[in-house]
Amino acid sequence: MANSKTTMLVLVVAAPVAVALLLYRLAEFDPASLPEHVLYRSPPVVPSKRYGRILESAERVGEGLLPGPEDLAYDSETGHIYTGCSDGWIKRLHVADSAEEKETAKTQVEVENWAFTGGRPLGLAFGPDKQLIVADAYKGLLRVSRDGAAVELLTDEVEGLKFKLTDGVDVGRDGVIYFTDASYKYGMEEHNEEVLEGSPYGRLMSYDPSINETRVLVRHLYFANGVALSPDQDFLIFCETIVRRCSKYHIQGEKRGTMETFIDNLPGFPDNIRYDGEGCFWIALTSEKTSFGDAMMRYPKLRKTVWMLGKVVRLPRRLSNGGVMGVNLEGEAISLYSEPGLFLVTGGIKIRNQLYIAYLTNNYITRVHLNKLV
Ligand SMILES: *[C@@H]1O[C@H](CO)[C@@H](O)[C@H](O)[C@H]1NC(C)=O
């Protein structure tokens, strides 16, 4: 009896630990120390207005028809929202205009398969000619013709390094495209590895279609993600998910080509960013920060341990309180719309009195009625 119990104990407890220890020693996986200034020790930014229960004033749109709608682009002329899905399609749906906005908007939503990239479309933005520019995680930077029929590759490498996770995009009025590659080392399916390693493999780039030129604007970024231009097109902001910050990169004027902090120590992990035309950047927060997450950032050995455990057992993921944050042009957090049960929130845009929220893995988008929130 005792013997078989001992054997069981060895099998159930000791064996995985032994495997894990072995892995730990053998693994080439070598997490990096993060610079001191991104290991925020003070409490995160607190937006002046906070709504922590937004789903009570919201509904699901296109449920079941939108697998992983990651980012949102809005065409105000036609009233269509475009979103890139995990089945490789960019889908579009029509949202009710202000006259119909009442209760009728709730049901009838027609979702169309609009353009097929065959990859994983993430960031979306319209160019001045109304062609849709797509940051596709697998394919690179793409351009879709106005009728959705033709998808063309613009660029997928620079300085001899292929993009592994083309992620966020915005387009200037002059047609120049600003975009990010989250990592030249890890792809979409390995983004946890990127987080655990904590090395800066991300890049902010520009692509000028008139001369077919790709340029690196900023390198060594910690998971470069959303990009949005300012209304005067004198700067853009972009975020780095792992270190919870958004930076400002000047594209015009005396400071052209330089960078500074726009807002850091965010309450959660930033993803896509959209400007609403009314003085506010909307920054999606995939999940709120946790003290365990902070500890992981601080201690590379803890990240290595988590990585190694993940090879042996299935680790629970504790993500919650995702949402969308409103930040003004001065980089001040003015509002936060969140909900405990939301996570992997990747996009948000405000259209009139409604906030639309997109997700990496849910199969719908959420429409929040801002005037019903208390
Ligand atoms: C643009 O440049 C890339 C790389 O330099 C090249 O491979 C590609 O063929 C060019 N595309 C066009 C349309 O000239």
Compose a concise summary of this entry.
The chain has 374 residues and is mainly beta. It has helices at residues 2-26, 191-197, 291-298, 300-312, and strands at 49-51, 58-61, 72-75, 80-84, 89-94, 111-116, 121-126, 132-136, 140-144, 151-155, 157-158, 161-162, 166-171, 177-181, 202-208, 213-221, 224-229, 235-240, 245-250, 259-263, 268-275, 280-288, 323-328, 333-338, 345-351, 354-359, 365-369.
What does this structure look like?
Helix content is 14%, strand content 40%. The chain is mainly β. The protein is globular and about 75 Å long. A five-stranded mixed beta sheet has the order 1-24-23-22-21, with no helix packed on it. Helix 1 crosses helix 4 (300-312) and helix 3 (291-298) crosses helix 4 (300-312). It has a single domain (31-372), classed as 6 Propeller (Neuraminidase), CATH 2.120.10.30. The chain has four helices and 27 strands. The mean pLDDT is 92. It has helices at 2-26, 191-197, 291-298, 300-312, and strands at residues 49-51, 58-61, 72-75, 80-84, 89-94, 111-116, 121-126, 132-136, 140-144, 151-155, 157-158, 161-162, 166-171, 177-181, 202-208, 213-221, 224-229, 235-240, 245-250, 259-263, 268-275, 280-288, 323-328, 333-338, 345-351, 354-359, 365-369. Strand 11 (157-158) and strand 12 form a beta hairpin. The structure holds 2-acetamido-2-deoxy-beta-D-glucopyranose (NAG).
